[in-house]
């Protein structure tokens, strides 16, 4: 694999153009090792719909190099994982939407962050200037390599090195986004536009967010910047018709993926969907509850409806 250079790093961190691939030098094997891609059409055939589904935080691989440096056990670290979200949307390819799902765990490398959104305090050596991030997410301990799990417990027993961070980016972040970008470009080429839906789950405590009743779903469109309002409105109505409580942009308006790919003026629309884990998961033991199958079926209904919808207005 070619080394990650400063010029590539800067290109990764610039705003999305949807014109050039991030990593044309990556092999299909490297992408397959980082993520699973399930197509909605035969290999080489155009995608049947403009939809692309992504699950960046459901990865289950916790490599030995990470666990050797960790202060927490695997179960504690898994509390940051979007457990089973890839399974919840698993039938989407049969309904017309390809799915890309991360293999590596969110705590290993967060694919919904800029690749070099790093906390200098986590590293034993000095970071390059382009990797010294000062974002709110880094301040919260949730950069591309997280400092803490969702309860605030520190993950690592020692400081990492920049070489370790770069290896994670090369192994997982670059290949995942290269594969995701390819899916987006294929949808855009076939239909004139693309609709990317980035699927996540949120702790039940976060779903309340100061409300009298917790939200079942939070849909984030970066306050209208990442997709056309018709997409946000359609998803909201579909979920509410099934009896779910839906909030917009609070407490989650969308992360790196939504911001990076969502360019409505370039006919790429990106929407983030957060699912309340209380709907389907026992958060203590990270096992599915009786609500899992009902939720899965409801998401299949939503997917089928979105796949059948007339989105021609998004061609611009």
Q: How many E strands?
A: 9
Shape: globular
Total of domains:
1
Q: What is the percentage of strand-forming residues?
A: 5-15%
Q: CATH H level: which superfamily?
A: Zn-dependent exopeptidases
Using the 3D structure, state the CATH architecture. 3-Layer(aba) Sandwich
Order of helices and strands: HHEEHHHHEHHEHEHEHEEEH
Give the structural class. Answer: alpha/beta
Distance between the termini: 39 Å
Quaternary state reads single chain
The chain-level mean pLDDT equals 91
Sheet with the most strands: spatial strand order: 1-3-2-4-7-5-6
Main β-sheet: number of strands, strand sense, barrel status? 7 strands, mixed
Task: Explain what this protein looks like in three dimensions.
The protein has 316 residues and is of the alpha/beta class. The protein has one domain: Aminopeptidase, CATH 3.40.630. The protein has helices spanning 6-13, 28-34, 64-69, 74-77, 85-88, 92-95, 136-139, 162-191, 204-208, 229-241, 256-261, 291-308; strands at 35-38, 51-55, 99-102, 194-202, 217-220, 246-248, 268-276, 281-282, 287-288. Strands 1-3-2-4-7-5-6 form a seven-stranded mixed β-sheet, with helices on both faces. A two-stranded antiparallel sheet has the order 8-9. Strand 5, helix 10 (229-241) and strand 6 form a beta-alpha-beta unit. Helix 2 (28-34) crosses helix 8 (162-191) and helix 10 (229-241) packs across helix 12. The radius of gyration is 19 Å and the shape is globular. The termini are far apart. The relative contact order is 0.17. Mean pLDDT is 91; it is low at 1-24.
């Amino acid at each position: 694999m070619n080394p990650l250079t400063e010029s590539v790093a800067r290109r990764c961190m610039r705003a999305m153009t949807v014109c050039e691939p991030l990593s044309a030098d990556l092999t299909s094997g490297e992408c397959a090792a980082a993520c699973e891609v399930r197509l909605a059409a035969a290999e080489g055939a155009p995608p049947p719909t403009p939809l692309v589904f992504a699950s960046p935080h459901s990865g289950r691989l916790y490599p030995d190099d990470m666990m050797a440096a960790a202060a927490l056990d695997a179960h504690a670290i898994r509390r940051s994982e979007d457990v089973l979200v890839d399974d919840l949307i698993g039938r989407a390819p049969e309904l017309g939407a390809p799915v890309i799902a991360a293999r590596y765990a969110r705590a290993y490398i967060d694919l919904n962050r800029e690749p070099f959104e790093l906390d200098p305090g986590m590293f034993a050596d000095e970071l390059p200037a382009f990797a010294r991030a000062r974002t709110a997410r880094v301040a919260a301990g949730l950069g591309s390599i997280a400092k803490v799990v969702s309860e605030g417990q520190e993950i690592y027993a020692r400081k990492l090195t920049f070489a370790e961070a770069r290896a994670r980016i090369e192994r997982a972040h670059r290949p995942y986004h290269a594969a995701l970008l390819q899916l987006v470009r294929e949808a855009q080429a076939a239909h004139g536009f693309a609709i990317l839906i980035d699927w996540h789950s949120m702790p039940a405590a976060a779903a309340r967010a100061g409300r009298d009743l917790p939200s079942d779903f939070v849909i984030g469109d970066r306050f209208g910047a990442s997709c056309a309002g018709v997409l946000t409105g359609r998803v909201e109505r579909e979920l509410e018709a099934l009896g779910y409580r839906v909030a917009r942009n609070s407490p989650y308006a969308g992360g790196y993926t939504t911001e990076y790919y969502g360019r409505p003026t370039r006919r790429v629309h990106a929407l983030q969907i957060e699912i309340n884990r209380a709907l389907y998961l026992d958060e203590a033991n990270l096992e599915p509850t009786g609500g899992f199958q009902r939720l899965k079926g409801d998401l299949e209904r939503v997917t089928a409806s979105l796949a059948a919808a007339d989105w021609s207005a998004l061609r611009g």
